[in-house]
Amino acid sequence: MSPAIGVPAAVSSGDVAPGPSRPVRVAVAGLEPAGIAHLATLAMIPDCETVAVIDPDSRRARDAAGLGFKAPRFADVETLLAKLVPDALIASGPPDRHLAFAGPALAAGVSVLVDPPLAHTLESAEQLAALAQSHGARLACGHALAYEPVFHAAREALAGGALGALMRARCSIYRSDVFGPRQGWRFEPARSGGGVVANLAADLLFLLDWYLEAPIEVRATWKKLYGEVEDELHAMMRLRSGAEVGFDCSWSVPGYPRAAVVVELEGENGKLLASDDALELDLTSERGGQARGHTVRRRAELPPRARFDWDGEALYLQDASFLAWVTGGPPPPTELRAALRVQRVIDALYRSADQGGAPVEIAS
Amino acid sequence: MSPAALEAPRLLLGGDALQGAAGVPRDRSLELAARYHEPESLAVSLSKAVVAGADGVLATPTPQLRGALALLKQTVPIYALLPHPAAFRRDAADEGVAGVLRARARGAGFRVRVRHALARITHGWAAARGDLVGLVPLLLELEAPRVRDLRGIVLSARLTDLALAARHRRFFERYGRFVHARFGVVAGLETHNLGHLLRALREWSLHVDLVVGPVNPAGVRMKPTPAELLDELRQTRVPVLAKELRGGGAVPLLAGARYAKEQGVYGMVADLVDLEDLGGELRALRAMQN
Q: Min CA distance, A309 vs chain B (Å)?
């Protein structure tokens, strides 16, 4: 007999998957691959029905139907709303379309989840925020990294005060993706809003905001290796406390077939290192429920909560948490105010890099 | 095609780690990449695995694998995991499944393009509608390896799980038939959502030659929940090969394998990343199967 028999201990009553508290009808706008991933995930969330898909391109709608996702298709959100009003809408695809997708839905009081970043420009993001606020509609941004178990656990440790006052931090995200000129909206700044920061590292900027606070000043440099958008960006950010945060991102480095994220924080009570593999704490004294000394919590040791795996747990947890909010549950950490702060940081990073690394202040 | 030719293997050496798969710690992934950078060292491991009792290798036919196979005098049974998971994820990020097909077709050699053109006659109509029923045969035609001892085609999890989420019963019905008719080998499905897939196959009264999915005492990646997955495992008639036996490093390999066996799995896949003593551990796993 093996030492572990039956249902693994990881599954306890406290590890229940989030989800809507009543049947919920959802529409998905933007049927690029990220939109298809949402369709797949929503199909596996109990009490969730995808009632419509929206895309101006009939070929993409046909492809989605060919994959087996056969919800009625609308060319735009206005036409959808004239026929039916869903409980929620997920806006995916190029950020320059987010306002066109999410705007009418928010104005109709529909809850909206937008794939990151909120929009391709700060101005457009602020318009979305104003619409959500004026119509009392829920708006969140899909910073899925917040739902990766290790990074979620790091937030819990920090919220408990394990590190004490922050002294310094550095973080990075790398992926092997772009090694030559590429076609597509991700590489057209007018549509995507930028390159590696807007398309990949926005989630990491959210983590910094969630873990620490929004920076008040940034200095950034970038490299545009293969086209109009940046392929690498390096920055220093200053927090209100005076602490400095180093930030590196690239999608043009070999050796990273999957995105690799590392966050290193040093506080008055010790250090925290969160990566895709594990959360490590090295504390000089017991604090916030965290033991003194060196502790490691590997990803495999963290309780699984998602009922469906789509390249990990995060997408399911993100969509299910959003739908829980839609049906009266608590707001997700990625709700409007946080997402808007991230968009302001993205805007500041790009302005600084465009000015050769000049300091750019961020209004709170 | 004799029934014996379609018999599912009991023990496979897995090559997930060679592709930087999810769940492999980065330092371990780098260590393996360095170790198997030269095809000679991979060839030695493949040879050792077969001698130790593995029925074959479950891996994506990368140049690295093909190079290693070419060095061996003996044949190594290959269960090809297709399409290449990392390349598929990268190419699909911009253009979706149909885009991957286009990218592969552009990069294919003359012979492969001819085979692809022939497959288009039978599957082009469905593929033009973006239907997995047409797209997957065309993708497999482009990616299926020409190796001496191809024993199986295993559809990688991203596509299996996409079809599963879409409840695309017709795809699952036809996939096996296509693989049998075209390649004459075992038709398998890899999934990261084993409980969901077994349930769907049971509800649809469908059979496939084998399913590969996570089973381990830590409950890692056992979806929808470990309890529901184990319940389906007890009911299924589909041969299930357990993978991720160590649960991301939470338990020793042999303890994970014993646990999976006790839950009724048909066989198992031991990945290179999980093997410290390749020959010894594979022999122990083989003994467990007998």
A: 6
